[in-house]
Inverse folding.
């Protein structure tokens, strides 16, 4: 009875400690910039020191171009918002009802912008910061003090944008370096698996999960980083084309290696040993910032899988332009090609779900503010922040975020209490406080830099710690502060759950069905006339679509029984996703000739009996 829960805990633990390449450096940079923010806040005695720290931790990116883009959007957005805030506060001062209405209007705008624009998390951070600021301003009676606090807030926003932009551009690596780390990570994973396979050693479950998760990421993220590298104008088109080749072929190698995880895979130990050495040499070459120029093109391996890996290795010396992986000639181009995305996503104002989500989030904030005021308990202001950080369009996503927030907040507040009891009494200087803050932020940032399924928990650890130990310009000594933060989080989670359940509950199955149909359309395309690169890219798209659909199904499983599909139908969907992942391997090499015979479509799976299908899948 306990085994599924123990397996889930072990799975989360493996995700939390997985030492991917660049993860430690990213966590260290996040800790350093938060230490710089605390130092600036202590010197200038800035208000909202905890919110300053958590904003930096939430918005920090893994490369300098992304950090610069976030900084520019943040400064422009909050400069406009600060002007609106000053006008609103000046007209609603000493009037709680008017201030509440103004706060709710801003909350609605922030929730709407978070799902319909490119701002995303910036809008969420702005909502939680300004809502808390308005609640604080409501207790002030002097107009001059209110004006000064608004200007102080704008100063804090500029500091956040400046730290992300300038320190980020100096401290963060280039997108090219980040992409190279991802390529090296995939090559080393492939080499480890092939080495153990050649020696007859069992492949650990952690390594199997790492390979499966990396394959599920596809190449879209890597190509996105490649686009950021092109914005720097520091790399020639030839350099970028070789990186594009390495990104695509590293996925292809890992995809084929994923088919070698079982003991009965059609690949010999000799081929595994030979390929492991070549793949490891490629990874070491990229790790030393060198480009492979000479690779032995002699075919040594015999099996289909081994020969496909060998072909992918040999192709590393060939450039790959963006035009080489476009749609094949036998597909007619669209009559109305899609426009480049602007500030708003397509259909932002026509989708009623966007408005409903903004309304649900605003109602949650309204109830949280009224509850906070009625309790007259300043320590539980985290109930307002919680309404922003866990509000998502679907019920399954909300429940998933709530679970991660509870675990992250408990860990963060436990760390804060431990510091208050055993460390804070012994601190004698700001330098010691900065070291403690850096260590705590590093732990949370390490989790945040991991897999997307647990990254939110790392952010919550940072938020809980910052709101507990950075509330004053001195080391914290009151244990009631972490306790109050936990109580406020639980209040906010309860409010959010009730509101999203009562008002227009939206199931995650809506998005899951769209992804399943998109995956079915990808599987239905005829790839027999495509070249190797196009088939590899198609396999990456299949893997990404299957991974996204499985993520939506996991969220749907958390929903109430009346919202999610039956267990019978869920098993059918899982069978289809497993078959889709297996069919992605049929896009390579000579096996692509029989791709149409092996592909099983969604309607065929739904017609089958789910228990029988699941049993057959387990045997295969």
């Amino acid at each position: 009875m306990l085994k599924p829960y123990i397996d889930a805990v072990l799975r989360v633990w493996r995700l939390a400690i997985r030492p991917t390449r660049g993860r430690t450096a990213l966590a260290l940079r996040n800790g350093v910039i938060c230490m710089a923010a605390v130092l600036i806040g202590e010197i200038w005695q800035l208000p909202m020191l905890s919110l300053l720290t958590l904003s930096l931790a939430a918005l920090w990116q893994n490369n300098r171009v992304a950090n610069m883009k976030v900084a520019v959007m943040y400064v422009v957005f909050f400069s406009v918002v600060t002007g609106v805030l000053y006008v609103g506060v000046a007209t609603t001062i000493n009037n709680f009802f008017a201030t509440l209405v103004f706060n709710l209007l801003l909350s609605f705008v922030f929730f709407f912008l978070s799902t319909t624009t490119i701002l995303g998390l910036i809008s969420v951070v702005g909502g939680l910061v300004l809502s808390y600021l308005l609640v604080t301003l409501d207790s002030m009676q002097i107009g001059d003090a209110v004006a000064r606090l608004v200007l102080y807030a704008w100063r804090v926003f500029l500091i956040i944008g400046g730290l992300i932009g300038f320190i980020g551009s100096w401290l963060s690596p280039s997108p090219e370096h980040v992409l190279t780390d991802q390529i090296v990570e995939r090559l080393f994973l492939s080499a480890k698996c092939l080495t153990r396979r050649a020696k007859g050693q069992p492949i650990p479950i952690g390594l199997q999960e790492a390979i499966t998760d990396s394959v599920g990421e596809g190449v879209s993220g890597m190509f996105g980083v490649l686009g950021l590298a092109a914005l720097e104008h520091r790399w020639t088109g030839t350099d970028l084309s070789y990186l594009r080749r390495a990104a695509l072929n590293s996925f292809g190698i890992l995809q084929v290696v994923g088919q070698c995880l079982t003991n009965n895979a059609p690949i010999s130990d000799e081929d595994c040993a030979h390929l492991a050495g070549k793949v490891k040499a490629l990874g070491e070459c990229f790790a030393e910032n060198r480009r492979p120029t000479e690779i032995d093109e002699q075919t040594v391996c015999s099996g289909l899988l081994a020969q496909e890996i060998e072909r992918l290795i040999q192709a590393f010396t060939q450039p790959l332009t963006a035009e080489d992986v476009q749609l094949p000639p036998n597909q007619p181009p669209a009559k109305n090609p899609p426009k480049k995305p602007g500030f708003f996503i397509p259909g932002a104002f026509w989708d009623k779900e966007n408005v409903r989500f903004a309304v649900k989030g605003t109602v949650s904030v309204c109830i949280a503010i009224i509850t906070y005021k009625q309790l007259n308990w300043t320590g539980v202001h985290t109930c307002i922040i919680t309404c922003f950080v866990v509000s998502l369009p679907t019920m399954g996503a909300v429940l998933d975020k709530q679970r991660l927030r509870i675990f992250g907040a408990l860990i963060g507040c436990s760390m804060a209490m431990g510091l208050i009891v055993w460390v804070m009494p012994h601190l004698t200087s700001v330098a010691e406080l900065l070291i403690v803050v850096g260590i705590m932020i590093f732990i949370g940032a390490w989790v945040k830099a991991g897999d997307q399924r647990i990254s939110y928990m790392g952010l919550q650890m940072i938020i809980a710690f910052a709101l507990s130990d950075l509330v004053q310009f001195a080391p914290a000594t009151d244990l009631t502060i972490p306790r109050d933060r936990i109580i406020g989080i639980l209040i906010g989670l309860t409010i959010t759950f009730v509101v999203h359940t009562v008002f227009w509950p939206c199931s995650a199955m809506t998005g899951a069905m769209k992804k399943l149909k998109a995956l079915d359309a990808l599987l239905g395309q005829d790839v027999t006339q495509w070249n190797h690169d196009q088939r590899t890219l198609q396999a990456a798209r299949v893997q990404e679509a299957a991974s996204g659909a499985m993520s939506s199904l996991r969220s749907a499983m958390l929903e109430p029984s009346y919202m999610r599909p039956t267990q019978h139908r869920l098993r059918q969907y899982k069978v289809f996703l497993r078959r889709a992942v297996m069919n992605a391997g049929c896009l390579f090499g000579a096996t692509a000739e029989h791709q149409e015979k092996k592909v099983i479509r969604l309607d065929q799976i739904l017609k089958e009996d789910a228990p029988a299908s699941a049993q057959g899948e387990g045997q295969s």
